[in-house]
Specification:
The chain has 21 helices and eleven strands. It is an alpha/beta fold and 525 residues long. The chain has a four-stranded parallel beta sheet with strand order 7-1-8-9. A three-stranded antiparallel beta sheet has the order 3-2-4. Helix 1 runs antiparallel to helix 4 and helix 5 runs parallel beside helix 8. The longest helix has 25 residues. The protein is globular, with a radius of gyration of 31 Å. The N terminus is likely disordered.
Length: 525
């Protein structure tokens, strides 16, 4: 804290010449021959002192002041919490630690039976560097993702460059190799103190599980599912590992526990392992029945995640939007010229795995402009609180503080609405969108990236096109993909070769044997 305050003082200390006049008395100059020059000098010095004093008093509060105070408060809070953490006992008197499930089940005599395979989801698995550019010197086999994330602050642009994939192939850029961290440590903790699988691994260990009967199926979550096999043979290695655990554990079938995107990744694996080569693993139609006892999905993303839509469009979700609302200039380029979201969007749009999380099933599953499955199931907490406290149905109550207001129902079938009114007005009032007539690039009105600006695919769109696709427009889960193909054509052309988001009309159609349908439960048996 003291160093921060000293830094702030150095930033705003007055020049040395003015300090001399403020704190040191200037000797009087007496020269009768100059006709009162000494008194004139004193008057000038006094005026300058008063001017400097007034200037110091009226100095405005600037951004650097806020930054210094915030950093000081954060450092002080961390030091206080660190001191309390080391000074307080592990267990406080009167607050017994609850018994863990593993300890309780061990006391009941539970022992390991079936081997367990854990499949992590998106962004939760660690990634380490095996080959990189000169800016990544000293990071060989160091974690770039999952861990301390210290490299974000040391060399952010270099870090983003190495986490990005090739924009056309979806694989490694030339001269860069980033691979998944192997073993249980790959996804036990996302960051220090932020556990993912650590608690489950610890409780399984308490009843007797260990490395021979528990495995973490780590993979590079940035790649499309089939590309994990093409580049790393991740599916082949998972197949071999399950077969080995099956044999070495008394021919006991494995129990698979996938999480989030890992659920559809393992769904892809089950179709791959039973499909004939070269596209599949050649395990035969009975491989899953022979080797897998059960699958327990945690937070499955079978039908997609609406949050993935905003992530692709603007690299933000609800949590990031809160930060931008509180201080919009920090993440954008107005103050520090960080261009954070532009950098993140440029990197994340090379990750084909995000496209696998887009909503599947179209309007039949997610609703259209006027209907959605959420209709009639509102979770308005304010309305619930009023109905519970009022205790009656008297709508003629004149109390202004308790007046019952019926809000316009939210139309959740509109996955994207540009403008609040657009999300509420009736569908006949909405303008129709036709992407065929829109110019994709216009040299007269096109955005041009100036020196230091971050290039994204938005820079290839004309202002006229952006205005026409956003003004009072709403998009459903069906028309959303037309919008994505227009604003991010390279990403969608690459990713749609690996994923599909529709509903099958006839599953006996031979086309559904292609791997792009394997991760969609609506288009696979």
């Amino acid at each position: 804290m003291a160093s921060i305050l000293r830094f702030r003082k150095l930033c705003y200390v007055e020049p040395c010449s003015s300090l001399k006049f403020q704190y040191f008395e200037t000797p009087k100059i007496e020269n009768r021959d100059e006709g009162g020059v000494g008194s004139k000098t004193e008057n000038l010095l006094e005026k300058k002192q008063r001017k400097n004093k007034n200037k110091k008093q009226h100095r405005e509060w600037r951004c650097i002041d806020s930054c210094c105070w915030v950093i000081g408060y954060m450092c002080t809070t961390c030091w206080v919490l660190l001191f309390l953490y080391h000074s307080l006992p592990a267990t406080l008197t009167g607050f017994p630690v609850p018994e863990s499930p593993g300890t309780r089940l061990k006391a009941e005599g539970l022992t390991p039976l079936h081997p367990v395979v854990l499949v992590p989801g998106i962004v939760t698995g660690g990634l380490e560097l095996w080959e990189g550019r000169p800016c990544a010197e000293g990071l060989f086999r160091k974690r770039l993702w999952g861990g301390g994330f210290t490299e974000i602050f040391k060399r952010p642009l270099c870090w983003l460059e190495h986490l990005s994939l090739h924009n056309e192939t979806g694989l490694d850029p030339p001269g860069i190799r980033v691979r998944a961290v192997p073993g249980l440590v790959a996804a036990d903790y996302f960051a220090p103190g932020y556990f993912v699988w650590a608690v489950l691994i610890e409780n399984l260990a308490k009843i007797g599980y260990e490395g021979k009967n528990m495995h973490m199926a780590a993979y590079d979550w940035r790649l499309s599912f089939q590309n994990t096999e093409i580049r790393d043979q991740a599916l082949t290695r998972l197949k071999s590992k399950i077969e080995l655990m099956y044999v070495t554990n008394g021919h006991k079938k494995v129990v698979v526990v996938p999480h989030s995107m890992g659920v559809i990744y393992f769904l892809h694996f089950m179709k791959w392992v039973e499909s004939p080569p070269p596209m599949g693993g050649g395990g035969g139609p009975s491989w899953c029945a022979k080797h897998i006892k059960a699958i327990m999905n945690i937070g499955p993303a079978f039908l997609g995640v609406p949050k993935a839509v905003s992530n692709i469009f603007s690299a933000e979700g609800k949590d990031v939007a809160y930060i931008r609302a509180m201080d919009p200039g920090v993440l954008d380029s107005e103050i520090l010229r960080l261009q954070t979201l532009e950098h993140v969007m440029r990197a994340s749009r090379t990750w084909d795995s995000i496209v696998s999380l887009l909503p599947k099933g179209g309007d039949a599953i997610w609703g259209n402009l006027d209907w959605s499955p959420e209709d009639g199931h509102s979770c308005d907490l304010a309305k619930k609180g009023y109905l519970q406290t009022s205790g009656d149905t008297n709508f003629n109550n004149r109390d202004e503080n308790r007046v019952f207001q019926v809000k316009e129902p939210v139309k959740y079938g509109r996955i994207i609405s540009f403008g609040k009114e657009t999300s509420q007005i009736s569908s006949p009032q909405l303008p129709r969108h036709d992407f065929k007539d829109l110019p994709h690039k216009d040299s007269a009105t096109n955005f041009t990236s100036s020196c230091g600006e971050v290039w994204t695919e938005y820079d290839e769109l004309s202002r006229q096109s952006i205005r026409k696709i956003t003004e009072n427009k709403a998009y459903t889960a069906q028309t959303l993909f037309d919008l994505l193909r227009f604003v991010a054509p390279k990403m969608m052309q690459r990713a749609e070769a690996h994923f599909s988001h529709g509903i099958a009309d006839n599953l006996d159609d031979p086309k559904y044997g292609h791997y792009k349908y394997w991760s969609n439960p609506l288009e696979t048996k």
